[in-house]
Amino acid sequence: MTGPNLVELVPSPEQAAAIASDDEAVVVVASAGSGKTEVVARRVERLLEESSESLGRVLAVTYTVKAAAELRERFRVRLGNVSRRIETETVHGFAHALLRQHGTHIGLPAEPELMVRDEDRAELLDRWLEDTGIDPPDNTLETLRRLDLARATRTHCEFLDEWEQALQNAGALDYPGLLLAATELLAVKSVKRQIGRVYEQVIVDEAQNLTPAQYELLMTLTSESDGRLTTPTMLVGDDKQSIVSFAGADPKLMLRFAEQFNATRFDLTANFRSATAIAQAVEAVAARLGNTNPIGEFAAAGEVSVREERDEASEADLVANWVEELLTRGLRPDVLAPDESATAQPEQIAVLARSGSALKSVRAALAERGIEFASSSTSGEWLASTPGRIAMEIVSLRTSEEHRSTHWQLGRLLNISEDKVSTASQLADVLQAHADPSAAALAVAAQVGSVSDFAAALSSVELPDSVPREELAAWESDLSLLVEAWSRFDAEVDRAAVTWGNFKLFCAKQQRGDDLAPGVRLLTIHKAQGREFLAVAVVGLNDGQLPDFRATSEEDLKAELRTFYVAISRARRSLLLTRPASRMTRYGSRASSASRFLELIQ
């Protein structure tokens, strides 16, 4: 990181109070850029220094493997060998380690099987139901999704008891089952006493992403049934950045912890990541999400620019020129803090979008200028349109007709039973007769037998004008992304390796990207959560893109606003927000409306 790190040099009064707190129950509500990770690191450092003669450990859990690795590295750099007393894990990782060490106390085998593939889980459930005389569900994989959500939220649904019996009979666990089994294990008094002697502090980062099942596990670890907290515990998070409610996350659990244990609450409101202009934009969005904390004063002025361009190509040129200017000339002195370096390294610059396909034009513009970049998106965000996702599932089905997860995905996308699309010929028939014209248009692609002809077949697909313009534009972006992926795949692999399976793997690699690769970061917004950059551009800010055109309910729109909040709060000094006034399709130019979220900061 270039320039002075204000958090490391002089903690603010609110940060210092959180670092110095010796209260057993602590909640830190940390807005974006407020230095929460540094507060966590400093508090742990202080606690370990004050208990230097102790052999006790600190358990620090967070939401993702990447976040855990970054927190572990932060501790290593700050504390050196002392960091060995800190165990940094995801909640699932902690549960898995606990069960491998002590699981025999609850009847688990010494090395329980962890079932991670949906196909294997579906097969186990169907076989168990059939063996016990129960008719399997019409859509087993959709049933498993409901079971996963029910276990995450600690609710009940059909087939839950049967699924847990099937897992127990097989001596196996799946990811949701790790949490429930670990909670059961900690209810064993001898195990609870032993584990209680290991950890003298528990810290939960990104606590807004906790599910009820995760919360129950952590509370079973740190407290007794009579409501006493037995292990000092700190929860750190920001409910405005809770964008995974679809997986059962409940940001209200932080408030529940505060009430349950009369926790001391610290609000970190000062934004140390962003400069004044960016902090003002972030707080304007936060206010719409219910946050009324005033913004403070910042050493750097920063800059926020909102630009509208003619079309996506012009938007991409604008962003590429902006990146090139940053790399060659750096940031303007007037947006920086005194004595702060103006130099911008490629990895300190990010271009964000709601979907991976919305970054396609930017990738082309950067490549044309010879600017190195690294792309990455979540699997659900790589393709934006329903036709694009169906196309990718055609590749999966051609790879193997045995994978039930593909059948489930197609059934969900086409709103039919998964058993009606278990073969490529069945899928072609279903698409041809489908009432949705955008799905019906893809029948020609499902009929292709050779992967070498797939891209050409996709390119021949024509969606009727009756399809909503947002879907048409999203399909065009997805089509271009898939054709581009095919072109690269065809050029890079030997003829013998040109198979459906290898193309599927290539697309998956394109979607995941390489986080260690050098270059400007091109990320979907969910991939950027928890990260910060010197300069950030957010592209494709049209209604229909962000917010997504499928977000129609008040709850969905609020989730999209939180996504926008996460996007703009990644920037430290420079924030560029752009939109194309029109999106080009093969059917001509389609006018677009500016995202309603832009009104909050203009």
What does this structure look like?
With 602 residues, this protein is an alpha/beta fold. Helix content is 46%, strand content 14%. The protein has 25 helices and 16 strands. It has a 6-stranded parallel sheet, with helices on both faces. The protein has a 6-stranded parallel sheet with strand order 9-14-13-10-12-11. Strands 4-5 form a two-stranded parallel ribbon. Helix 4 links the parallel strand 2 (57-62) and strand 3 (86-90). Helix 5 crosses helix 9 (175-186) and helix 16 packs across helix 23. The longest helix is centred in the C-terminal third of the chain and has 24 residues, at 469-492. It is globular and about 70 Å long. Mean pLDDT is 86; it is low at 1-8.
